[in-house]
Design goal:
Blueprint (H helix, E strand, L loop, with lengths): L1 H13 L10 E12 L2 E9 L8 E2 L2 E3 L6 H13 L9 E2 L2 E9 L10 E9 L12 E8 H5 L13 H18 L13 H12 L5 H10 L4 E8 L7 E6 L15
Parallel strand pairs: 1-7
Antiparallel strand pairs: 1-2, 1-4, 2-3, 2-8, 5-6, 6-7, 9-10
Length: 258
């Protein structure tokens, strides 16, 4: 029976004609978010080649024939920015990577039919990125300038990257309500005040310090005392914490209404 089944598969494959279907390319685009100077910022690269040469865009590029999507996302992140991440949902050097969404409008890329698999990358306060690949320069841009106020130079992002950026920011804003993902923006040891400023930057709100402290320290598995203290914020020594083992927060950290 096994031989018959294998023979049937071989015959069926021999009749398959790949040229009967139009070819298309697959890319990965990265929404890289961090908190700098108490603001949620996104990583942009200036395109050094057509199409959209000179436009700001999200980092990314074409998937190679011999690699998976997560591998391509990690490679593009390293090539274009010097940052490194590992597999989706895991952390390497403090960088969180997860798949976001797929974009496949037939006219999204003027070169050919291109389907993009977008990824979300979150990390603590990161240094100034270095450009690489086909990027001529790279910078951190406050998210509110790109989404709420529009680009500072009045020029939209390349391709459909404005739409992808908006989806990535909303994913981060909603996910820190019910998961411990906000700790991905923090160093390995952090204070409650530093974590609060992450929530304030991502949500774009001001939170009551006492209520916030009560919620995060009272949520099972969210934070673990590290045993140390710090005065890096000034004033009295503040207790240091590390991320706990909880992946889902119960009760959730509900986002205040705008």
């Amino acid at each position: 029976m096994f031989i018959v089944r294998e023979t049937t598969i071989i015959i069926a494959m021999s009749r398959y004609d790949p040229s009967a279907f139009p070819p298309f390319a697959v890319t990965v685009d990265l929404v890289v978010l961090t908190v700098r100077d108490h603001e949620l910022c996104a990583l942009l690269v200036r395109r050094g080649e057509p199409p959209f040469q000179g436009y700001w865009a999200l980092p990314g590029g074409f998937v190679r024939p011999d690699e998976g999507l997560a591998e391509a996302a990690s490679r593009e992140l390293a090539e274009e920015t010097g940052l490194r991440a590992s597999a989706p949902g895991q952390s390497a050097a403090g960088v969180h990577l997860e798949q976001l969404a797929t974009y496949g409008h037939p006219q999204r890329d003027p070169r050919m039919r291109v389907v993009s698999v977008a990824h979300l990358v979150l990390a603590p306060d990161l240094p100034t990125p270095r450009p690489g690949g086909d990027a001529s320069s790279a910078r951190w841009a406050p998210v509110h300038e790109l989404l709420d106020d529009g680009p500072a130079d009045g020029v939209p992002l390349a391709f459909d990257h404005g739409q992808i950026l908006g989806a990535g920011v909303e994913r981060a804003r909603s996910k820190i309500e019910y998961s411990s993902l906000a700790t991905a923006f923090c160093p390995p040891e952090f204070t409650v005040g530093e974590l609060r400023r992450v929530y304030e930057a991502v949500w774009g709100v001001v939170l009551d310090p006492r209520n916030f402290h009560r919620k995060v320290t009272g949520t099972p598995g969210f934070l673990l005392p590290s045993g140390g203290t710090t005065t890096r914020q000034g004033g009295r020594p503040a207790q240091l914490f590390t991320a706990g083992g909880a992946t889902v927060l119960n009760p959730p950290m509900l986002r205040p209404e705008a």
